Amino acid sequence: MTCLLRNLLLLGLLGPAVALAAPPAGEITVRADQATFRQQEGLGVYQGNAELRQGNRQINADRIELRLSDGAFSRAEATGSPVRLREGDILDARGQVLVYDVTSQTITLTGDAYIRHEGRTFEGARVVYDLGSRNVEASGDGEGQRVRLVIPAQDTRESTTTPEE
């Protein structure tokens, strides 16, 4: 019974918000209109205006599924129209499906995936963002949707002021 109570606390079924065991990036908090936990499967399902926060990283979706492996948070899968991901001013992303793999520290977006990362825009059927290296990979769907990358022009104007001597 103690294990069940601990898992219920971890997945927030005893309150509106939850703090999960998280990777070094910080605790994870999840909120939603409705939640279900399946003890034997290690699965928490959050539906209706679901939100996951970890530090300054925020995921908003219609539905978020959280997976536990050996009692520790291992994966989140979010679906929505669209799912949105923000990480401060560095990252803004959206897609129909988002998978956050804690072990590999990657976020994979599929279904009209879009990521704006440090001013650059990546679009495609599938976009993978590595949280550690901040690398981005994008791919098309093979049926006409191609990858699109936009790199903003840099301000190359020289300063009109002269340094004082």
TrEMBL record:
Superkingdom of the source species: Bacteria
Keywords: Periplasm, Signal, Transport
Domain spans labelled Organic solvent tolerance-like N-terminal: 30-131
Gene3D superfamilies registered for this protein in UniProt: Lipopolysaccharide (LPS) transport protein A like domain (2.60.450.10)
Pfam families found in the cross-reference section: LptD_N
Presence of keyword Signal: yes
Leader peptide range in chain numbering: 1-21
Protein name: Lipopolysaccharide transport periplasmic protein LptA
Gene name tied to this protein: lptA
